[in-house]
Hints:
By secondary structure, the chain is of the alpha+beta class. It has helices at 20-32, 47-58, 62-65, 132-158, 167-170, 248-253, 291-296, 307-317, 322-325; strands spanning 10-12, 36-40, 83-85, 96-100, 176-182, 201-206, 212-216, 223-226, 232-234, 241-246, 263-266, 272-279. The protein is built from nine helices and twelve strands.
Amino acid sequence: MGSNALDLPIIDMAKAYSNREEMAKKVVHGLENSGFLFIDNVDKLDYDGLYKACKWFFDKPIEYKRTVMRNFWNPENKNIYRGYFPVNEGEPSRKEGFEFARDIKENDPTVASNNWFYEKSPWPEEDGAFPFKSFLQGTYEILHNTALEILRLAAIGLKIEENSFDEIFAYRPCTTFRLMHYPPWEGEPPKSAYTDDGKVVITPAHTDTNFLTLLTRFNYGGLEVQTDSGEWIEVDPRPGSLVMNIGDTFSRMMGGRFKATRHRVIDIQEDRYAVPFFFTPSYDGDIGINFMTKATGLGPEHKVERYGPWVLDVIKYQKKYFEYRVLPDIEPKEH
Length: 335
């Protein structure tokens, strides 16, 4: 571990049942303090396969990637929210990505036709060298179940009903699974990429908006977390482990007791790959529940608030992320 590296709690999923209370306490402690955890021993999670998936896709020429490029960058395609987005030159967030979701049933009568959260994920044509679609869809389910299990441990640690968090993810989650490639800066980075402490970012400081994130970062450095004192501390790579952090949605549902911590990615001057799984409620999921009220009996009254309209305001109208600023100016409406 580096001399100035963040010491994160380690949640061993192999002990999630045999040492359930111990793991539950560790989850709660970590989320109350750093807001970040290491997750070890996720059954059947293939890190080498995820790296191969990144290389298989991102090494392809741009003409190939255009076949699944989002509509804003390729008007010939219909996909608005899922698929490929290119590096946006001049932005301090220097990355290209491919993202998909778990598809819902076609023509679901309860989903408005203009609700792009639920559009069908586009997939690139495969060449037989790597089972891209089937591998990633299988990995999605592994990570979905892992995230739910961590939330059950959190519930046990809070001494509330173990499945308290399950409902808002049970039916049509809006979870996004993303492959990312951060190419190094070519020439001088834009001024906006320089930090106050003299470093260069490839992802500026932010909190995640979603519920929780499970990040595969392979063996790359560059991830830094901001402490309560404002200091930036590096999270050392931990091969064969996930990094987990929570987002604004989870924090607000905990009355702020669990921390959505600011973090950033520093330029390491080489190609970098990462695979975040942005675990997210359904569009209609009720995020007005305050789980601290459930745990303590003290806190605000429950007022129903749907996840979809709330997050739209954050990612689109507050313009928090460049890759979503270009979404159509239409708020999905339910039938």
